[in-house]
Amino acid sequence: MKSPLTGILPVAPTPFLDDGQVDEDGMRRVLDCMIDQGVDAICILANYSEQFVLSDEERARLMRICLDHVAGRVPVIVTVSHFYTGIVVERAKAAQSLGASMVMMMPPYHGVGLVPAEAGIFEHFQAVSDAIDIPIMVQDAPLSGCQLSVPLLVRMAKELEQVRYFKMEMPFAADKIATLIDQGGSAIEGPFDGEEAATLLADLDAGCTGTMTSGLQCEHIGKIIRSYLAGDKEAALAQWTACLPLINHENRQCGLRACKTVMKAGGVIKSDHVRHPLKPMTPRTRDRLLQLATDMDLIALRWGK
Q: Euclidean distance between the first and final Cα of the chain, in Å?
């Protein structure tokens, strides 16, 4: 893996068949499609991978399938989040042993009412950092209901050897990214944004060096980052403006279902099934999604045809 890692590091969806079973062949096809989109790395088993509806056995099996199939073509980031520190440590060690280039983890939480104090959060990340030799990406996301302060993030970056990357998704992410970089200095190796790149230009202005989106339109969002980092901010703005309608529709109307629906329409996977209690999107939302995807001539929409 190049260091520091920059660019677009999208989350791979987990495909299921119509009966809800994991589609192993579809998982391999998803990875191939994303690599053909020109991604800089792939993240697996994240929230947009529906990690919260997978059994432990399914999770372990998918990790093996993904790392075996990618086979070093791009770096693979394995999400290892769990409330119990011991499980996170074991997941991180397993990911490293199978060839992961990085792990990503959220702070420990179980609903907004069960979040440890900052000392416990630090110790949670410290245990993983001490157990592995690959980088850790800290995911700072609204889903956790956990407020990770900039001083805590800076302390983790400076004192924990493997904590080097940060995915910043909280409201007003740009200001937090800028402050994190200012206070953390060289310890902040990889500041990234998320939220389907909805705030990407502001976050790039603040100093982020990449984004972790879904696998929907990686070929287009990747151009934004590469243009910006090359110094062509006007081209980055123009490209981001072109991507915004689809970014907005995915982020605000579709969520994790968008990528799977487009990949099904494009012949990448057989089904866009989501496990209960998640529900399929409405025909109205789906029609608009596919119209916007067609307008962008997405690779995922024609990859399997």
A: 32
Burial (Cβ within 10 Å: 0-12, 13-18, ≥19) of residue 200: buried
**H or E segment at 73?**
none
- CA 105 vs CA 38, 85, 192, 220, 277: distances in Å: 24, 11, 14, 27, 24
**What are the b/e assignments for 260-287, b being 16+ CB within 10 Å?**
bbbbbbbebbbbbbbeeeeeebeeebbe
Locate 54 and state its tokens.
């997978």
Instruction: Indicate whether 24 pLDDT > 90.
Output: yes
- pLDDT reported for residue 105: 97
CA atoms within 13 A on the CB side of 83: 11
Q: Give, in degrees to the nearest 5, the angle at Cα 64 between 71 and 164.
A: 75
Burial 38-71 (b: 16+ CB within 10 A, else e): bbbbbbbbbbbbbbeebeeebbeebbebbbebbe
pTM: 0.97
Residue 226 CA to residue 210 CA, distance in Å, equals 9
CB atoms < 10 A from the CB of 111, how many?
Answer: 9
Residue of 104, 177, 101 lying closest to 136 (CA atoms): 104
175 Cβ contact list (under 8 Å, min separation 6): 206
Residues involved in catalysis:
167
pLDDT at 112 over 70: no
pLDDT digits (tens, 9 = 90+) for 184-230: 999 999 999 999 999 999 999 999 999 999 999 999 999 999 999 99
Q: How many CA atoms lie within 13 A of 66 on its CB side?
A: 34
Task: Name the average pLDDT for the chain.
Answer: 96
pLDDT by residue (tens digit) across 40-54?
A: 999 999 999 999 999
User: What pLDDT was estimated at residue 141?
Assistant: 87
Distance in angstroms (rounded) separating the CA atoms of residues 88 and 90: 5
The domains of the chain, with CATH numbers, are: 7-232 (3.20.20.70)
